[in-house]
Amino acid sequence: MELIAAPKMTKQCFEAVRELIDMFELVPVDSLVATTSGRFLAKYRASHGLEPMDAIIAATALTNDAALFTLNTKHFKYIDGLIVINPYLTYD
Questions:
Q1: How far is 83 from 64, CA to CA, in rounded Å?
Q2: Which of 61, 56, 63 is nearest to 83 (CA)?
Q3: Sign of the torsion formed by the C-alpha atoms of 79, 58, 41 and 7
Q4: Strand runs labelled E in the chain
Q5: Are 51 and 32 within 8 A, CB to CB?
Q6: 30-87 pLDDT, tens digit each
Q7: Is the full-model pTM beyond 0.85?
Q8: Which of 90, 65, 61, 63 is nearest to 75 (CA)?
Q9: 2-35, pLDDT tens digit by residue?
C-alpha cells in the first residue's frame, strides 16, 4: 500500500512496484496480527508516536517471525523482539 501510494507514480514505476510485490508471499492481517498491533499501539502510541499502519506492519513481521526491511527504522526500532533492517546499510 505504501509503495503504491507514492506521489506522482508513473505507469512505469507502478509496473515496477507491482513486479516487486509479486515476488513476495502475501501474509494476511489475521486476529493475531490485529491483537498484537493493538498492544503495540497501547504501549507505544503516546511515548513514541506509533501510528496504526506502522503497528500493523510491525505486528505482521513479528507474528510471522520475519525481519522488517524498511528505510524508516526509527519508526520501529523501539519495538521489543522486532528485527528491523535498513536494506541500504551494510551490517558487519
A1: 12
A2: 61
A3: positive
A4: 68-69, 84-85
A5: no
A6: 999 999 999 999 999 999 999 999 999 999 999 999 999 999 999 999 999 999 999 8
A7: no
A8: 61
A9: 788 888 889 999 999 999 999 988 899 999 999 9
C-alpha cell at 68: 522488517
What is the distance between the alpha carbons of residues 30 and 17, in angstroms, rounded to a whole number?
Answer: 24
Q: Give me the phi and psi of 10, to 5 degrees please.
A: -80, 165
CA distances from 82 to 1, 61, 85 (A): 21, 7, 10
Q: Grid coordinates representing 39?
A: 498492544
Give dist(CA 11, CA 4) in Å, integer: 11
Judged by DSSP in three states, 85 sits in strand
